[in-house]
Amino acid sequence: MLTLDLFRITSTVAGPGHGAIPAGMPWWQAWSFDPTLIIPVALVGWFYLRGLRRWEDRSRQHPWWRTTLFYGGLGMYLLAMESPIDRLGEHHFSMHMIQHEMVMMYAVPMILLGAPTTPLLRGLPAWLRHGVVRPLAGRTATRMAYRAITHPAATILLLTSVVWAWHLVPGWWEASLQDQKIHDLQHVSFTTVSMLFWWNVIDPRPLHSRIPHLARILYIFGGSLPKHVLAAMLTFAPHPFYPTYEAARRVIPIDPSTDQQLAGLIMWVPSEMVTLIAMAIVFFMWLHISERRQQAADAKRLGTPAV
């Protein structure tokens, strides 16, 4: 099969997807420093700050807690990618799973809750904003593509397809452990599909989801269910899925089968908690919006100002 051939080729000619922790080095000292990630993240953070400084009278539209969540999300993303968690992922499937959950279930939603669209656009250099972004955003093809990839059915399909493919297509996960480029592609794909999924839940102002608030509860449930099924498959599998982890040196005293069960539980339980919290928040937001609309309707009917 093509995927198995890909794994065989990358196993022999490519460097590891993570930097393995040398024998004798304490794992907590195994930090990474990847300029190809740190520099872009730093630029995003700078453009956001620059945009806020250029945005006059923004306190009501962009409260302080959005800024805090945005930078907290960037910090969480860097922590997942540059801390010892990343290099432990060479030795333990469960550590790799912690990394991906930090990105998809925590860092990405926090960044979107920071409402980054307006600050980032205001913070971009004028030549980039007027010469590239504005003409591109004005094209009909761009708007059609945006509506297509943010459609609720499309985001759930993309999220499910990407997560299931990386874990279950023969050779894909192994290739990501052996080839840094494939490993980076995996991280980019996970970040992208989680960004698209949460986009329809969070409403990153000034853009808005096309899903009514109450229907977002079903959307969150429908998008998370396939991932939970995959987590159950990993947790209750009778044998490890990935030979690389069976052969890897154990940094943490845990056997490969237990390591995979732990990885499945990490994908399952914390993700389920985030899902339930998100559904509850959306429900209470719907109640609040419904109450305000009812008050406005009553005020209009009675001819009195709305509270």
Question: What does this entry look like structurally?
Answer:
By secondary structure, the chain is mostly helical. It has one domain. The chain is built from 14 helices and no strands. Helix 9 (152-168) runs antiparallel to helix 11 (180-202). The longest helix has 47 residues, at 256-302. The N and C termini lie far apart (66 Å).
Question: How is the topology of this model organized?
Answer:
Layout: H1 2-13, H2 35-54, H3 64-82, H4 84-88, H5 93-113, H6 117-123, H7 126-137, H8 140-149, H9 152-168, H10 172-178, H11 180-202, H12 213-236, H13 243-247, H14 256-302
Helix pairs in contact: 1-10, 2-6, 3-5, 5-11, 5-14, 9-11, 9-12, 10-11, 12-14
Provide key terms for this protein.
307 residues
Oligomerization:
single chain
Structure class:
mainly alpha
Number of domains: 1
Rg on CA atoms, Å = 22 Å
The helix/strand order is HHHHHHHHHHHHHH
Total strands: the figure is 0
Note the beta-strand portion.
under 5%
First-to-last CA distance:
66 Å
Largest sheet: none
Spans with pLDDT under 50 lasting ≥5 residues?
1-16
Overall helicity: over 70%
Shape: globular
Average pLDDT number: 88
Number of helices: 14
Short synopsis of the structure:
By secondary structure, the protein is mostly helical. 75% of the residues lie in helices and 0% in strands. The chain has one domain.
